[in-house]
Amino acid sequence: MSYLPIQQLLKTAPIGTDVTVKGWVRTKRESKNAVFIALNDGSTINNIQIVAEAGQLPEETLKLITTGACLAATGQLVESQGAGQAVELKIAHVQIYGPADPDKYPLQPKRHSLEFLREIAHLRPRTNTFSAILRIRHALAFAVHKYFNDNGFYYLNTPIITASDAEGAGEMFRVTTLDATRPPLTEDGQVDYSQDFFGRETNLTVSGQLEGELGALALGKIYTFGPTFRAENSNTTRHLAEFWMIEPEMAFYELEDNMNLAEDFVKTVIRYALQHCADDLAFLENRLKEEEKTKKKEEQSEMSLLEKLQFVISNEFVRLTYTEAIDILVNSKPARKGQFQYEVSWGVDLQSEHERYLVEKHFKKPVILTNYPREIKAFYMKQDEDGKTVRAMDVLFPGIGEIIGGSQREDDLDKLTARMQEVGIDPETIWWYLDTRRFGSAPHAGFGLGFERLVLFVTGMGNIRDVIPFPRAPKQAEF
Amino acid sequence: MSYLPIQQLLKTAPIGTDVTVKGWVRTKRESKNAVFIALNDGSTINNIQIVAEAGQLPEETLKLITTGACLAATGQLVESQGAGQAVELKIAHVQIYGPADPDKYPLQPKRHSLEFLREIAHLRPRTNTFSAILRIRHALAFAVHKYFNDNGFYYLNTPIITASDAEGAGEMFRVTTLDATRPPLTEDGQVDYSQDFFGRETNLTVSGQLEGELGALALGKIYTFGPTFRAENSNTTRHLAEFWMIEPEMAFYELEDNMNLAEDFVKTVIRYALQHCADDLAFLENRLKEEEKTKKKEEQSEMSLLEKLQFVISNEFVRLTYTEAIDILVNSKPARKGQFQYEVSWGVDLQSEHERYLVEKHFKKPVILTNYPREIKAFYMKQDEDGKTVRAMDVLFPGIGEIIGGSQREDDLDKLTARMQEVGIDPETIWWYLDTRRFGSAPHAGFGLGFERLVLFVTGMGNIRDVIPFPRAPKQAEF
Question: Going from the N-terminus, what domains does chain A have, and what CATH number goes with each?
Answer without folding.
Answer: 2-110 (2.40.50.140), 126-171+206-466 (3.30.930.10)
